[in-house]
Amino acid sequence: MKTLTALKAKAEQARGSHAYRAEGASIRFTEDHVAFMKTSGLTRTALAEKIGSSPAYITKILRGITMGQNHNGTENLWKLILVK
Q1: How many Cα atoms are found within 13 Å in the side-chain-facing hemisphere of 15?
Q2: Model-wide pTM > 0.85
Q3: Residue ranges, the chain, pLDDT below 50
Q4: Of the candidates 55, 76, 57, 75, which has an alpha carbon nearest to the alpha carbon of residue 65?
Q5: 3-state secondary structure string, the chain?
């Protein structure tokens, strides 16, 4: 019981951290864009063409490997947001 209480406290502490909130935003962003792509019939290749990037880069973004870690990444992230 003591371990469960400690675990719950650690989880609650983590939920308040910037990293936890950032990861949640990243997951929501990815889920929203995958859903948008499915409903609109947009492929990764077509999306990459729309933002002037490569399908591999779109795959990285959707896997959460890169989310705008440099100027070009930030610019492409905003382009993805504006595609909708």
Answers
A1: 6
A2: no
A3: 68, 70-71
A4: 57
A5: CHHHHHHHHHHHHHHCCHHHHHHHHHHHHHHHHHHHHHHHCCCHHHHHHHHCCCHHHHHHHHHCCCCCCCHHHHHHHHHHHHHC
